[in-house]
């Protein structure tokens, strides 16, 4: 998915949840050009391993099997936070 930076700023929390829970990648654009991307922690770890030379794709011979994920549109989003009204319960006689 591509998203202009100005739009992404308004939807940042939602975009982070989508990336974290569905693995979807979000390319952030400015004037139609991709400037940066939001990727899952798993994808970041893979990219860092590639850069550090711990993974050599030229010597691998066969591509790694790709884990099939349902498309993000068909996956339910989990709740990242939930509002619970009220505070801690108080013993009788306190805070009338």
From TrEMBL:
InterPro entries: Antitoxin_Phd/YefM, YefM-like_sf. This is Antitoxin. Antitoxin component of a type II toxin-antitoxin (TA) system. It comes from the Bacteria. Pfam families: PhdYeFM_antitox. NCBIfam families: phd_fam. Belongs to the phD/YefM antitoxin family. Gene3D superfamilies: YefM-like domain (3.40.1620.10).
């Amino acid at each position: 998915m591509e998203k202009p930076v100005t739009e992404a700023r308004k939807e940042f929390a939602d975009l982070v949840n989508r990336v974290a829970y569905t693995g979807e990648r979000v390319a952030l654009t400015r004037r139609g050009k991709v400037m940066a991307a939001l990727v899952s922690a798993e994808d970041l770890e893979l990219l860092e391993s590639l850069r550090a030379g711990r993974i050599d794709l030229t010597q691998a011979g066969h591509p790694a099997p790709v884990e099939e994920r349902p498309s993000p549109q068909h996956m339910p989003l989990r709740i990242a936070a939930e509002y619970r009204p009220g505070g801690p319960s108080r013993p009788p006689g306190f805070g009338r």
